[in-house]
Amino acid sequence: MTLVVEADPVLWRTVRLSLAVSFAACAIATAFGLAAGSWLSVAFFPGRRALLGLLNTLLALPSVVVGLVVYLLLSRSGPLGAWGILFTPSAMVIAQTLLVLPVITALARQLVSDGLRDGGDQLRSMGARPFTCALLMLLHERWAVVTILLTAFGRAVSEVGAVMIVGGNIDGVTRVITTTIALETSKGDLPLALGLGLVLLGLVGFVNLGISLTHRAQGTGMAGTR
Predict the structure, then answer these.
(1) What sign results for the dihedral spanned by CA atoms 190, 196, 202, 205?
(2) Which of 140, 127, 144, 115 is nearest to 41 (CA)?
(3) Quick one: pLDDT at residue 7?
(4) d(CA 29, CA 24)
(5) For the chain, how long is the longest CA-to-CA vector?
(6) Rounded CA separation 139/37 (Å)
(7) How many angstroms separate the CA atoms of 113 and 40, rounded?
(8) With 90 as the cut, is the pLDDT of residue 8 above it?
(9) What is the mean pLDDT of residues 8-27?
(10) Residue 191: DSSP 8-state
(11) How confident is the model at residue 176 (pLDDT cuts 50, 70, 90)?
């Protein structure tokens, strides 16, 4: 607790990197995930059911598996080894993006599908194309979208396996909250581990509070439209 109050530079440098990596990953995953989820809610093609099954399976994808895949891609002998970004924050962003992308895509698809089932006929009667209807439904259900994004951020900021593998846990370069807690605990440096643990609990609590407030705002908005 003392390290948090006294603004220990090592602690807060670690926190800043964690937030930067997780925010960047969630921003990229949001751009692709919302679009992909909207498209999957209105597209019909051979193999769609199998693709949705795979997407739902990826919701439980272990972070260490994501880390392994990204490591193989970015290693010197991998197809993207020429990029030279293994053991850098960029590699960590890629890993976390792949980790939360299925979450955003699957939840967005379900949200849009449910919305179109209830109000899609009205949009289609106005001449809107299927994909346009899906995007409009996302806008209409914006509070639910916020909940999806907060959920994705919570998963990104609290994971350890993927960033440990592709980041290498290099002091001052790629150490984030979770990897530092694991390392410092194994070394017996409990004050720093406890301080970072408190910060992580605060971040997770903030996300949960945001989700609760979003649900309350969504309920208030629905009541106001009646």
Answers:
(1) negative
(2) 115
(3) 63
(4) 9
(5) 65
(6) 13
(7) 9
(8) no
(9) 90
(10) H
(11) very high
- CA nearest neighbour of 17 among 78, 109, 92: 92
Question: Residue 46 and residue 52: Cα distance in Å, rounded?
Answer: 12
* 101 CA to centre of own chain: 6
- Is the backbone of residue 34 left (phi > 0), alpha (psi -120 to 50) or beta? alpha
| Cα separation, 180 vs 200, whole angstroms | 11
**Cα separation of 194 and 201, whole Å?**
10
DSSP assignment of 106-124 equals HHHHHHHHHHHHHHHHHHH
User: What are the residue ranges of helices labelled H in 43-88?
Assistant: 48-58, 63-74
* C-alpha torsion sign, points 174, 182, 24, 109: positive
> Distance between CA atoms of 211 and 33, rounded to whole angstroms?
19
The pLDDT value given to residue 6: 56
Check: CB of residue 74 under 8 Å from CB of residue 166: yes
223 has a pLDDT exceeding 50: no
Residue 212 is encoded by which pair of tokens?
A: 């609760």
Single out the residue of 41, 32, 27, 55 nearest to residue 136, CA to CA.
Answer: 41
Share of the chain above pLDDT 90, in %: 52
